Amino acid sequence: MSPTEKALRIQTLKLRQTFALPWFSLMIAILMVAAIFGVAHQVPYDKRVTGALTAFYLSGIGMQPWLINQVFPFAMALSVTRGAFIRATAAIIFVEAVVAGAGLTVLSRLETATHGWFVHTRLLNLPHVHQDNVFSQFLVYGVPMAVLSTTMACVAAVFRAFGQIGLWVFAVATAVLAALTIIVLTLTHAGGSVVHFFGSQPMLADFALYPLALVALFGTGWVLLMKRARV
């Protein structure tokens, strides 16, 4: 067994408590929304659009912090190298994104085929994320999962490398950067142009292509931080 395979095996010990949680949450959301609209007959069909899809993504927020802050020291104690752990985590993030893209695409098509889970509701096949092309739909669903995972992995690595103070500094720096960006856009009257630019782009670009820059940014930061993370 290679070091990377060993790291993968350690990280996938608790599949039901980690990787399966988003899918459990999505199934619960589908059942709850279908039950609600099954009895709420007074709600017009064109108003039966929900944000229950967010339950899928939000349920995966805690996985990377758990892997890095709980599993990483355990893996190091079992003689797993940092490089092997990084490669294994990167593979997991990639597989997560692929499975999310493929699974949600299939479910969105099933939602259409069943006329909104038999109650004419839209949970997955939302107007602003719908793509006619299957591969484009796969990217629109899958890339946000990669963004979420790499972002949370980077945040967890900040804590692992610099502790609570480092995490606080990171949060403050992010808030200051966001505030400065808003100030600059306001003073230069460029905010409307930025909003118009992204609003005029196809959903494939906004949800899949541009977010890849965030995957590269936070992924690079995560790798660099993990090389100096405390065990």
From TrEMBL:
Keywords: Membrane, Transmembrane, Transmembrane helix
Membrane-spanning residues: 21-40, 52-72, 84-107, 138-159, 166-187, 207-225
Protein name: ABC transporter permease
